[in-house]
Design a protein that fits this description.
Helices cover 35% and strands 21% of the residues. The protein is of the alpha/beta class.
Length: 271
């Protein structure tokens, strides 16, 4: 059936499905045909901008699986809405926002969804993109061999309180060993951030470079410093959603195109 947005307007092109793992059912918004891509929405939820990004992925020839993890699907972005959902995430047992060396429990459910999408769509594997609070989840999902195209968009966990957390990857040591092995063995990771984004500190990308190597980690870092050539705010955060400028040559549009190209390279061949 057609999905309904928070304001009652149909979320055109998506159907509402349910996926259950270990007794935990969740709503998943589905659209498209082709290799599967798991889209993990950012705070505060599946906003119109997140849905717009998902449509781009569908338009590029992929099957989107977009689980509803918090917020009201389709509700417009606002500062009070962001603050409310951030507070809820901070106290939720499913999200461990300060854990530098441990993944959030919800990633177990998300890995099961990856296996489900791969079984339904076949092919080389599935893609997975996390954003903001869910950004580093794509790393935790790599523990499952079905994930072949992990993308981290402004990964913001753990919250950067102290040097250890600023550099942290929100993974257990055992999970990091698996991610390191896979990335260095032919399953690279794509990461994106704005250079002055306090929620996604540069130390985190330094850790990824060190742990995964040049062949295992591809970084897109967009200049958002004072006097940058595209007039981006120092507060710029969401690369392929809120801050996306859909103009040829703009760095956010180039980042979006790279994400879609990365999915195509990794999922449309026996990578």
């Amino acid at each position: 059936m057609a999905a309904l947005m928070g304001d009652g307007v149909a979320l055109d092109g998506f159907e509402v499905t349910t996926f259950e793992h270990e007794g935990q059912p969740r709503t998943v918004y589905r659209a498209g045909e082709g290799p599967g891509v798991i889209i993990m929405h950012e705070i505060p939820g599946i906003t119109p901008e997140v849905a717009g990004f998902a449509r781009r992925v569908v338009g590029a020839g992929f099957s989107v699986y977009m689980p509803d993890m918090f917020g009201t699907p389709g509700k417009a972005l606002s500062l009070p809405y962001v603050a409310n959902q951030m507070a809820r995430a901070c106290i939720s047992r499913e999200f461990q926002v300060l854990a530098a060396h441990e993944a959030s429990p919800i990633t177990d459910w998300l890995r099961a969804l990856c296996r489900h999408a791969h079984a339904e769509q076949g092919g080389a594997g599935v893609g997975a993109i996390g954003m903001c609070l869910t950004g580093n989840f794509a790393l935790a999902l790599m523990v499952d061999e079905s994930v072949m195209a992990p993308v981290l968009s402004q990964p913001s966990l753990p919250f950067g309180l102290g040097s250890d957390r600023r550099a942290g990857l929100h993974l257990s040591p055992e999970q990091l060993d698996t991610v390191r092995r896979r990335a260095r063995g032919g399953c690279p990771v794509l990461g994106m951030r704005f250079t002055h984004d306090a929620l996604c500190p540069g130390e985190r990308f330094d850790t990824l470079r060190r742990e995964l190597g040049d062949e295992g980690f591809e970084a897109i870092e967009i200049d958002s410093g004072p006097g940058n050539p595209h007039g981006l705010s120092r507060m710029a955060h969401s690369v392929v959603t809120t801050e996306l400028v859909d103009e040829a040559g703009h760095p956010t549009r180039e980042a979006l195109d790279r994400v879609l190209g990365f999915f195509a390279e990794r999922l449309r061949t026996e990578a």
